Structure formats: structure tokens, C-alpha cells
Amino acid sequence: MVDEESMRRNLNATPQFIGALTELVWTQIENVAVDLESFSRHAGRSTVTTDDVLLLARKNPDLQQLMGDYVDRLKATAGTAETTNSRRGGGGARAGRAGRAGGGRGGRTGGA
């Protein structure tokens, strides 16, 4: 991905830069996973939900607004599908159900 973007922008990314970027992204993903699991556990749940993801974005209001709008659109679409399915006698779509965050069970490894 870095190579493609470098070529598109006519820039050069050294292997050291790519390695450092990879490590940074990996550490951030681990931190996000730990935070999401902590939020869900604090709420007494074993599954991460969209509420946990929105809480994670609380320090970036623009991102939180964008994500909140997206969740609202999904729920509205799922509500329409559930109404349609219930008229047909079928089971409805399960909106707002997120999978459990993978990995990241260990402690934080970075200062991000």
C-alpha cells in the first residue's frame, strides 16, 4: 500500500520508513483493541458494540460525528429491513452487532 501511494505521489519510501509505519499502525491497533475490550467489559458486556467504538472516538468530535451518522444510517436501513422481514415472517437483520476485537489482550506497548 505504501509503495502504491509513493508511486502515485512520485515520492520514495525507504524500507526503514515502511517498517516504522507498520510498527506504529500495529501498536495503534493493539491499543484500540485493548480499549474496546475494556469499554465493553466496563459496561458488563462480553461483546464490543458500536457504542464502544463511538466512545473510542470521543476525543475527535469530527470523527465521532461521522461515525455516529454512519451508525444511524445503518440502524435506519436495518430497521427498514426488519420491518420488511417481519411482514414476511422472517428473522430481522441484527443491526449494531460488532464482532469481538481480536488480539490485543496484553498490556499497552506504546505511548500512543
UniProtKB/TrEMBL annotation:
Gene3D superfamilies noted in UniProt: Histone, subunit A
UniProt-listed Pfam families: CENP-S
GO cellular component, as recorded: FANCM-MHF complex
InterPro entries: CENP-S/Mhf1, Histone-fold
Bias type Gly residues, positions: 88-112
Stretches for region Disordered: 78-112
Molecular function via GO: chromatin binding; DNA binding; protein heterodimerization activity
Keywords for this protein: DNA damage, DNA repair, DNA-binding
Alphabetical GO biological process terms: DNA repair; replication fork processing; resolution of meiotic recombination intermediates
Source superkingdom: Eukaryota
Family to which the UniProt record says this protein belongs: Belongs to the TAF9 family. CENP-S/MHF1 subfamily.
Name this protein carries in UniProt: MHF histone-fold complex component, variant 2
Gene assigned in the entry: MHF1
